[in-house]
Amino acid sequence: MANLADVSVSATSKALLGGGGKTTRVSEITASKIRKAAEELGYRPNAAARQLKTGKSNIIGAIIHSTAPQVYYVRFSKIQQILSKMGYCFMVGQSDGNIELIERYLDEFRSRNADVIISAFLDAPGKNERLKRLYSGFKNVLYLGHPDSGNAAYVEPDTKEGILQIVDYLVSKGVKHMAIDVIDKFYRSVRMRIEGYKKGLNKNGIPFDNSLIIEDTGDNHSIQNTVRKALALGAQAIIAGNDLRAIMIIRELKRMKVNVPGEIKVTGFDNMEFAPFFTPSLTTVDPRDNEIACAAVAMIKYFLAEKHFPENIFIKPNLIIRESA
Question: Which domain holds residue 181?
Answer without folding.
Answer: 159-286
